[in-house]
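Tokens in:
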């Protein structure tokens, strides 16, 4: 490698995010009060289904006192206000910290008179024409125009700056139903693509041989599970350890663990590292009783606004992390748990907001870890075959 070819940093797939979150719009061009009221109406309508957030800048022109313990030099002042939580920061909040705070939001609305976002909704108001002209360079991805009562057309300077402005929908600012429908439609279209991940990288120490190679249904179990996932997923990958890649049939895409020594936790993180904007239907390869009905039910009840959708395990009485759909918003949460010394995916599910389901047939969640487990499942499968 020559000096010019040297790469200082690892090439990582970065999540598609703006200044605050994945789906963010700056509302710009109207008085701040109008922007606030519009944001209130949209959030009120969508919050029963989506996690909504709002970003603004204080309008108090007076010199304000530093709140709470910050006056004495604290860098952070946290107060549990019972109905909500309040954080006051002494130091400026850095961009990466903002993204962390807004990571759980499905929709972020921003007062574009003070903050910027990767997409914009532009209010056309005669009284704010000069102000909007000054912000013309900030209109990089306009997706909706809203005409105030005093306006009937998009300003000429916007038409000149945006050759395809006529392709952008134009609504009346008073038409709240259409505006709300605009955001709702975009959130539905932004639902993360669902990929499948078959966990087959374990060492099977208790079993004594590779569980993914056991032939329960006419083919090695890892391929059987991958084939079961295909109707429900955009792509399906087999997760394996480094060095196992050559052992997997070439017709099945492989995703090698890059977070090593962490078991399933590392496999899930490795998947997000590869495709951070995709959701992952994660399934262990040692579930010989798994059926299509159980998978179909999981996908049908998927809630992409939550961290994950998982089944309740009647054996552990906890969420089952290895037959679950992990949403992209779980990625920073998993990393946060790892930074605090935890590598248990079940612990993540227990301590975050998830959609917890009961399996149509709890036996489908049965995993096989030992030769004794294997013999029990053989008898169950034999009885099913005999019954049919």
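Residues out:
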């Amino acid at each position: 490698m020559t000096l010019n070819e040297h790469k200082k940093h690892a090439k990582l797939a970065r999540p598609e995010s703006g200044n605050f979150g994945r789906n963010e719009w700056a509302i710009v061009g109207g008085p701040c009060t109008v922007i606030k009221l519009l944001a209130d109406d949209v959030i009120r309508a969508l919050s029963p289904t989506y996690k909504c957030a709002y970003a603004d800048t204080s309008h108090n022109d007076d010199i304000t006192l530093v709140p709470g313990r910050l006056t004495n030099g604290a860098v952070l002042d946290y107060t549990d206000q019972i109905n909500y939580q309040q954080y006051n920061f002494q130091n400026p909040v850095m961009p990466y910290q903002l993204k962390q705070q807004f990571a759980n939001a499905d929709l972020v609305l921003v007062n574009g008179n003070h903050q910027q976002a990767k997409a914009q909704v532009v209010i056309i108001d005669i009284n704010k024409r000069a102000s909007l002209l000054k912000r013309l360079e900030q209109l990089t991805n306009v997706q909706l125009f809203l005409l105030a009562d005093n306006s009937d057309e998009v300003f000429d300077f916007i038409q000149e700056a945006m050759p395809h402005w006529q392709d952008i929908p134009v609504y009346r600012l008073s038409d709240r139903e259409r505006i709300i429908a605009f955001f709702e439609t975009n959130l539905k279209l932004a639902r993360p693509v669902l990929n499948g991940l078959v966990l087959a990288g374990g060492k099977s120490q208790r079993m004594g041989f590779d569980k993914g190679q056991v032939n329960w249904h006419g083919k090695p179990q890892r391929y059987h599970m991958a084939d079961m996932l295909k109707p429900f997923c955009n792509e399906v990958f087999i997760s394996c350890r480094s060095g196992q890649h050559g052992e997997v049939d070439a017709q099945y895409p492989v995703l090698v663990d890059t977070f090593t020594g962490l078991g399933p936790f590392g496999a899930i993180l490795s998947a997000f590292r590869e495709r951070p904007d995709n959701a992952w239907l994660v399934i262990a390869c040692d579930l010989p009783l798994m059926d299509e009905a159980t998978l179909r039910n999981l996908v049908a009840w998927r809630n992409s606004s939550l961290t994950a959708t998982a089944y309740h395990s009647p054996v552990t009485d906890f969420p089952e992390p290895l037959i679950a759909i992990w949403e992209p918003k779980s990625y920073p949460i998993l990393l946060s748990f790892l930074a605090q010394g935890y590598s248990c995916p079940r612990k993540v599910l227990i301590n975050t907001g998830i959609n917890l389901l009961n399996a149509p047939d709890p036996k489908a969640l049965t995993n096989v870890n030992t030769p004794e487990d294997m013999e029990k499942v053989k008898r169950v499968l034999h009885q099913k075959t005999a019954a049919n």
